[in-house]
Every structure is written in C-alpha cells, then in structure tokens.
User: Fold this.
Amino acid sequence: MSFFQKLFGRAAPDNELPATLAVLGADMHSHLLPGLDDGAETLEQSLVLLQQLRDLGYRKLVMTPHIMGDFYRNTPAGIQGALDALRAAAAQAGISGVELACAAEYYMDEGLARKLEENEELLTFGGEQRYVLFETSYINEPFNLQEMMFKMKAAGYRPVMAHPERYTYLYGRFEELIRIREEGVLMQVNLNSLTGYYSAGAKRVAEKLIDAGMVDMVGTDAHNLKHVDSIRAKVLLTEYLPKLLALPLLNSTL
Ligand SMILES: [Fe+2]
Assistant:
C-alpha cells in the first residue's frame, strides 16, 4: 500500500478536477512547507493540503514560509531543505501533476532592511521577474514603508504586497493603495478575503481592488485545511471570484 493510500484510504485520483481555479495555474502564496511557520506542522499535513490544492486545479505551488524577526527565522537553505523533503514525500505518495517551488513571505522589519542593506539575496519567484512577496503589520504602518519599497525595487526586485486588503492602517485610504501600485508594487489579494473570512473590512477592500482592476496576483495564503475548505465551499460561490479571475492576473505566467 502506498503512503498516499495509507494517508487517504484510497488511491490517488487522476483527473477529478473542477476547472474554476485551474485558469490561475499557479498559486504563489501559501504556508504548506512543514514545520517552518504557523502553517503545516508535519509532512503528512503538507501532503493533504498539497493534494487538495491540486484538486482545486492548481498545477504549480510557490510556497512562501514567513520570514519574520525572531518569530520565524527561516533561511533560504532551511526553506529549500523543506521543499526537497516535501517533493520527495509527494513523489513517494504518488501525488503528481503539481510542480512545487518556494520563495518566502518577508515581513517588513529590521531584518528585511538589513538584508537589503547587506545585499543579501532574497528568495524570489517568477524567474527573471524576481518577484518578492512581502507583508507588513496589519495594524501599524511601517514608518519606512516607502523607503523599503524603493530599496527593493532599487535592488532589482519586483515587490508584491501580500493581502493589501488586510492592512487596517490603509482602510479609508484607498488612494494610498493606488499610489503604492503606481510606484511599481504589485498587489496580491487572498482568495479567502472574498468571503469575509478575515473581516468585513478585508472583504470590502478586496472587492474595491477588484472593481478598480488593481489586483495583479491572487493567492490562497493556505496555512491549514480550514483555509482550503473555505476556498472550496465558499470562495468558489462568491460573486466576485469570476470578476477577479477575469482580470489580467500574473499567476498563469509564474
Ligand atoms: Fe501568508
């Protein structure tokens, strides 16, 4: 009996795929790599999540563990090691048809400032596009937000702001989001924001970004089964998902 069969009690399905999210091709924001942050804790959990995202139609997963101060002191080598382990486990479990890759979700803090200062290579995705996924505090605007975004661009990266709809310091300041994007920062909305999963405010801003055509990428930000269940059971039914998927998103280019 294969590892997959032991885990799921059945053989791996081949082609039971709903097409809705298949148009995206790639997810570029998740916490599926095991044991690195507040996402999957074990390889077994990672495999279940991986299988479920594949069944939602994804063909590539760029997994992005948190790198955040003293909380998540992940390094490129550690992340690569977890990716190698997950690839091996997926192969052993017979899970195919989904490419696995990694980058990181950089928290905008002194650690990131230091890496930029010291020209330390950041983890990127999108090949030569050199996309760097970053997040900030949900509540407090970083005092050096502009400077950090400028430094990322000056170092040859294309910054991607993770879930702009979740930052309460930007609520009621939509013109600030417009300005940030006009300065060359790409915007990545979370699928679960469309249901109000995080908050009513996040849903409102996500919808506004979609209406304004200001979404460049869309991510699952999947940490656990609850997130994936919500995408399957609720996000797929939202009125805004078709509007979101009709935008010229970059996911399929990754
Ligand atoms: Fe995340």
Observations:
- The first strand starts at residue 26 and ends at 27.
- The chain has nine helices and nine strands.
